Amino acid sequence: MKAKFHIPDIWVHKDLNLYLIKFHIPDIWVHKDLNLYLIDMIKEHPEYFYDDIEIASCYGCFPSALWNGGRALGGLALETQIQSTIKAFNDRNVPIRYTFTNPTLTEKDLKDKFCNHLCAIAENGFNELIVNKPFLEDYVRRNYPKFPLVSSTVKQIEDYDQLMEEFKKDYKLVVLDYNWNNDFEKLDKIPQELRSRVEILINPYCTPHCKRRKQHYEVLGESQRKCSKQTIYEQLGAVRSVKDPMEDANNFNCPNTRYNFYQITHYSTFVSNNDVYGRYLDMGFNNFKIEGRVLSKPNVIESYVYYLVKPEYRDRVRLEMLTHRPQVEEIKEHPRLFIDKNGREIPQRRV
User: Where are the beta strands (DSSP E) in 74-227?
Assistant: First the structure.
């Protein structure tokens, strides 16, 4: 499906003279292998996919980073895994985008060594940060100025004037609250010259105008905080925690967390693929975010197939993605080094 519409001047690259439909996909950790496979497939078999699409970023975070928000992520990542993940995406010309949007953060949390370490190793002027707290944003601007910043949908901005204030800052993109979706009267008020800086979350799993969304973000943020405080032995599962740090997040009463992709398509905020490649592009919006950081692999695959793949190739792409087995990362060094929540490397005991 090739979109037939007037190409706004703001889309035209000065050097390459082309326009791209940009998708931002989940997740750098949970769905790392799936996403790398998708990126490679787009390059190797462009005929499978809609014309002029680009994977513009892969968002998410590494466990168990305190600053991470939106979804809670427990466990532990090896230093070598972190660096190889960043390299794998960057080598494919895709930036990673940290989700530093924990709503429970305080200024004391700015000293978190692990999160600062994540910034230090990813700051190259290409990778990005999603932010929602002004003090964290200011801190990052001072200490890691090379990061392009993205304004988070976690801010829940539904007011037009407040949204316009976001564009006065130097955000690379502003992720709209999903309640703007398909409200074309409101969307049409966004000035044309700003629409290339708008990112639209096209498959929100949250109920439209959910009254408990803010509370849910906070519960997830508190669970993330508890995960970040675990000892390395608890993160590895070698020692059982007194209380599961994810318990409150897992017990939060939200049926939407168990929905599959097609159970959300009836929401008024769901953006169909026809509208993505039709009405939204005609209006000048060309940045689209696909949700799914902690969803099951089949759910994420289905969203990719629906939004990115031409109908005649969907069955083939779906099967290839479902049956793909990633290569096991080769261990080249001994002893291995773990990195704890404070950014310290801890040698693994020799067996």
Answer: 96-100, 128-131, 149-151, 173-175, 198-201
Q: Is the dihedral of CA 256, 257, 260, 264 positive or negative?
A: positive
Q: What count of other Cβ atoms lies within 10 Å of the Cβ of residue 315?
A: 11
Of 348, 331, 343, 346, residue with least CA distance to 121: 343
Please give the Cα distance from 95 to 121 (Å, whole number): 13
Q: What's the pLDDT score for residue 296?
A: 92
pLDDT digits (tens, 9 = 90+) for 230-266: 777 676 666 666 677 778 777 788 887 788 999 999 9
CA-based R_g, the chain, Å: 20
The stretches of 309-345 forming alpha helices (DSSP H) are: 314-323
- Cα(29)–Cα(72) distance, rounded to whole angstroms? 12
Tell me the C-alpha distance between 132 and 136, whole Å: 8
Burial of 77 (0-12, 13-18, 19+ CB in 10 A): buried
Asked if 146 and 123 touch (Cβ cutoff 8 Å), the reply is: yes
- Residues 180 and 217: their CA atoms lie apart, in Å, by 19
Distance CA 303, CA 312 (A): 16
Domains of the chain with bracketed CATH:
9-347 (3.20.20)
Chain segment 31-77, per-residue pLDDT in tens: 999 999 999 999 999 999 999 999 999 999 999 999 999 888 888 89
Other beta carbons within 10 Å of 191: 9
Q: How many residues does the chain have?
A: 351
